Amino acid sequence: MKKAFLTLSFLAAVVFAFAGNNGNSENKNRATETAPAVATVSISGKVIDLTSGEALVGVEVAIEGSSKKVHTDFDGHFKIDNIEPGAYNVIASYISYNKSFIEKLQVAKSNQELNIKLQSSN
To answer: For 61-75, what is each residue's pLDDT tens digit?
Structure first.
């Protein structure tokens, strides 16, 4: 009885594992082949204090009008990935500092470097 139950359980698992493949894999492959590949690029750089030149940790660097935003690491570095080539407004903001607006930044090549200097609002 145990052997029959285990055999049926195994067969059910195999059926469920292959149930998602309903013969449309050929159509799915064709759909991905015909979709044009959009090359994406990234923006990276460093944010520092204008006066002291120290790296600023936790600065928000965002692309205006999108949900893409990152925060700088302990060395002030940031990287925004998966951006389509084009012109973007980039905003860097941090507590006790004036916001930095970079207007119409042309992003065309991968790993474009952008160094930002923030001025203290005090």
So the answer is: 999 988 999 999 999
- Non-local (6+) Cβ contacts of 109 within 8 A are 41
Contacts of the segment 84-89: beta carbons below 8 A, 24+ positions apart: 84/38, 84/39, 84/40, 84/41, 85/39, 85/41, 88/63, 88/64, 89/63, 89/64, 89/65
The DSSP bridge pattern shows strands 112-118 and 41-49 to be: parallel
One-letter amino acid of 44: S
Which domains does the chain show, CATH number per domain? 41-118 (2.60.40.1120)
Strands, E assignment, 10-120: 41-49, 60-63, 69-71, 77-83, 86-93, 100-107, 112-118
What's the pTM value of the predicted model, to 2 decimals? 0.64
What's the pLDDT tens digit per position in 42-55?
888 999 999 999 99
